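Section 3.1: Structural characterization of target chains.
Under the original work plan, the team committed to producing a structural model for every single-chain target entering the pipeline before any wet-lab resources were allocated. The record below documents one such target. The sequence was received from the expression subgroup and is listed exactly as submitted; it comprises 363 residues.
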Amino acid sequence: MTAHALDVAVDERDRTSAVAPDVHVTRVVAGECGEWRRLSRQLGGHLAHAPEWSTVIQETYGHEPLYLLATDEVGPGGLLPAFIVRRPLIGAAVTSMPFLDGGGPRSASPAMTTGLVNGLIAQAHRIGASVVELRCQERLPVAWQPMEHKVNQVLPLPPDPEKLWHRLDRTVRNQVRKAHRSGLCVEFGGLERLDAFYAIFSNRMRELGSPVHDREFFRSILTRFAGQARIAVVQNGATPIGGMLMLASNNVLTVPWASCLSRYSTLCPNMLLYWEAIRAGCLEGRARFDFGRSTRGSGTHHFKRQWGADEIPLYWYTIPIKGRSTFSPGAGATSSRLADVWKRLPLSVTRHLGPRVRKYLIQ
């Protein structure tokens, strides 16, 4: 394990609470730290706490991992994954975790949580970052108030998918049946399905006015999460018209990225795609199906609610570092104007430029 101690002392005006003297915070290489994976499972870590992300994000976008481990007299008991994202012009951000729904500290005690957060703030001061961002599924003992406009939507899964099918809303079942009657089918696979998925995903991202992830980002996920990651593709005959990337972690099947071609929307490919993924989760004995995050009141939020999913609040903290700008790209009227411009660009251009922009859009 590669590690070194961190000075977790921060300016008293930035301190949220005193760090317990028996909590020791170290920086580790998650992939080489045997305790990391064990602790993530023991503490019920989110998918974002998986050590594989330290390699996936670094090798795709070049962001520097900043993974912290907390130890007390009992031993290792807390972890906090993050990345240093050095953004041109507007300054660096320390984010837990970029591109993902979750992150933040997981620990066995409030003292460890405080130590981890203060350790991350200290590192942000050291590198001159403008802001620390934490995406959590629980409130933190800090002075800053979180944004609460995002939620995860999670569906408990029974072993028998037929039981779940009969609990679904009639409209949902009818739309799935319509997709079947239209001759659509879903096929599962791995890297061999990446091109089909990416063609659909990049097309849909341009329609939404959003820069697309690098194809290599998804290739790296499929490679580094071997045995946990796969792709599902909806076929209309020989034509792929929808796809999703799924990840299994801690008995949860999560869908962080999915899209369908809008011109086929009347065939309900998205409904069939999600049902077949949910059905697979049941048959594999997964406990929950995680639809991923959405903004309260949005169309995506409504789509996920219709499946009967429970809402899990997300607490997103933005901690400004003294004397630094907290401007974050991708918000407000400026974001809307940029999205309108992006929609008008040729698909080939958005596929080329998208990853260069997405690298810094860490939402």
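Residues 1-18, 324-333 have pLDDT under 50 and may be disordered.
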